[in-house]
Amino acid sequence: MINQIREATDYLKRHGVTSPEVGVILGTGLNNKFVEKIKNPVIINYNSIPHFPISTVEFHKGKLIYGDVKGKKVLAMQGRFHYYEGYSMQQITLPVRVMKLLGVQYLLISNAAGNLNLKWKKGQLMLLEDHINLQPDNPLRGPNVEIFGPRFPDMSQPYSKKLNNRLIKIAKQRKIKLNQGVYVAVMGPNLETRAEYRFLGRIGADAVGMSTVPEVLVANHMGLPCCAISVLTDDCDPDNLKPVVLSDIIAIAGKTEGKLTELYVELIASL
């Protein structure tokens, strides 16, 4: 794994990715507006980077984009990887380790998630305060690589207080509604049953998705401060549950993408 990470890192350095300060992972339906903010972009397809997985999910474009946002060097993943695609947790999180080795100091994550909190509505944003991991594997399983981090990384504060507090402040200034809550990660790719939504709500989750937590685990393992925002794309009310299709999720994410982009661009400017 170490050799694969180093080979991918060296490849990106040779192709102009030299000093990124902020890493960004763009989730389902959140691939366009933030990318438009990147100036002087260097675009590298995933399939050209040694050992990078290939995104197989519709609407995940599979490109790494390096450039300038508000005077900071940013490295953005336009499309991410999921466990349900058949990749190992180590493959899914390889880009995060590469970002850290390239010099990234902060990691900003986005995702599309189902809304479990009946006080909220789809189309709103949720800042992750904490998470519950129900995925069946862990990217840190196996021999620990000491140069990356400790065998038993602490997870008492998985999301950076510094980044979260700044996002809350920016949201208030910009009059953007930013809920704060707990994200639960499940394997997927199916959406949940009514009974499963009831269970997830009862154990303390406000939103449910199929990503993000593996990347957050690896970021914490490497001492990389991170934050994450979910776009709530569908209401998961078990007593009034309606079928959801991917096109609806993409449409809601697209309508909300501008607000998320505004928050992250201003956060980057403040770092």
What is the number of strand segments? Answer: 9
Spatial sequence of strands, sheet with the most strands: 5-8-7-6-9
Elements, N to C (H/E) = HEHEEEHEEHEHEHEH
Rounded Rg: 17 Å
Largest β-sheet summary: 5 strands, mixed, barrel
Oligomer: single chain
Average pLDDT for all residues: 95
Describe what this molecule looks like in 3D.
By secondary structure, the chain is α/β, with parallel strands linked by helices. It is built from seven helices and nine strands. A five-stranded mixed barrel has the order 5-8-7-6-9. α5 (194-202) links the parallel β7 (178-185) and β8 (207-209). α1 crosses α3, α3 (89-102) packs across α6 and α4 (161-174) crosses α7 (246-270). The longest helix is centred in the C-terminal third of the chain and has 25 residues, at 246-270.
Explain the layout of strands and helices.
Layout: H1 2-14, E1 22-26, H2 33-36, E2 39-45, E3 63-69, E4 72-78, H3 89-102, E5 106-115, E6 125-133, H4 161-174, E7 178-185, H5 194-202, E8 207-209, H6 213-221, E9 226-235, H7 246-270
Helix pairs in contact: 1-3, 3-6, 4-7
Search tags:
single chain; 271 residues; alpha/beta; five-stranded mixed beta barrel; 7 helices; 9 strands; 32% helix
In short:
This protein is α/β, with parallel strands linked by helices and 271 residues long. Helix content is 32%, strand content 24%.
